[in-house]
């Protein structure tokens, strides 16, 4: 494999050798390439007796060939249980589409992590920076990020995934509805930031991008678990009428702050919330726990949304 040796104290082929039974070679991967959108079909309820790891779950997903060294250059707590990492990517040819994830290789940790990117492709292009927001868990890569990772820690990254939004200049504008549950906000926040970048390019340069409106529905237990909320409010203020958001909380016990309160609904995302957005030029992107995705998919089917307009990412 090209670009295989990573100088972070290990080589990626050595790390993957133990997983060879579940990790296909590049020639065996099913490569799905679409210029703008990739459709993933909803197949009903997940039935599994055990939790698959990242490599098993994504064995048939697209993966880039490039594996790049990266260095941690920033760490913040996005919430009590979610840590946000800024990573300086070494390889200048490393790219991704908004909504994709990375294989996350850690020296000394045999398990490969899989984390959705929460920053925009534009940030990587402008500054060589990629961001991840990782929830604490006992899973070795997540546990390492929360307990051992420090500034200047070195890792390696490879982009993969068939869930993305990548419009091209000259494409007809579409409306987007983004529906997130919990940390499922990560790839959708990347898409939201990408749309904001393209709106900025459209206004400043007139370079052929035609962007429609985007509505984000984001559900969590309470407002303290809503990730990126200040950034999202900032985007709404920067692009009024073009980017809007409704936060949903299901177990709120404390008072909601004044800044956030006008945008918060107590209760789950409902059919009534979604039906006003149904149109022939609307695309729907969903990311969250499988039960939520299945529930939302049924709601969309009930209100007449064609299956080929629904895109989703199931991780858990």
From TrEMBL:
**GO cellular component, as recorded:** mitochondrion
UniProt xrefs under InterPro entries: FAD-bd_FR_type, FNR_nucleotide-bd, Oxidoreductase_NAD-binding, OxRdtase_FAD/NAD-bd, Riboflavin_synthase-like_b-brl
Q: What are the protein's UniProt keywords? A: NAD, Oxidoreductase
Q: Where's the FAD-binding FR-type domain? A: 59-192
Q: Which GO terms describe its molecular function?
A: oxidoreductase activity
PROSITE patterns named among the record's database cross-references: FAD_FR
CDD domains per the UniProt record, alphabetical: FNR_like
Entries under Pfam families matching the protein: NAD_binding_1
KW Oxidoreductase (keyword) present: yes
Keyword NAD on this protein?
yes
Return the protein name: Oxidoreductase NAD-binding domain-containing protein 1
